[in-house]
Amino acid sequence: MRYFESKHGKVSWDDELRSVVIEWKGFAYGEEFQTILLKGADLLKLRYGSKVLMDTREGSAIKAEDKAWIAEFFVRRAYESGLRHLAMLEPHSAIARMSVNRTVEGLGTLPYRQESFEDRDEAVRWLSAQGRELRAIG
């Protein structure tokens, strides 16, 4: 189910994966960058989800202002929206990959579990396995 789309990204819900999927397309910054992430958090809360597949393969470098915004605001907002597991598909571009990795490393300890992947199938398998122990108990 498509929830939001712009020229720089798309936010959707994957019923099979029971996850928000955020797909980046090119360079987004400032309000555009933040809107895509906030729409992802909104959809997570709306669907009572706990998982996000963040596909940055076609993404670009992250500006310093947006790195600060993620650290100061978005991590908390995503967690409050229900995020517990995030699988990130790394960018194809070496420059973008370094930027994304520096951003993640700069966040320190996260309130949710995040893993990075190069292969989409591997990311989906990992994300699918998350939370199974909770359903088994309940």
TrEMBL record:
The organism's place on the tree of life at top rank:
Bacteria
The protein here is known as: STAS/SEC14 domain-containing protein
Write down the species: Cohnella rhizosphaerae
Organism lineage reads as:
Bacteria, Bacillati, Bacillota, Bacilli, Bacillales
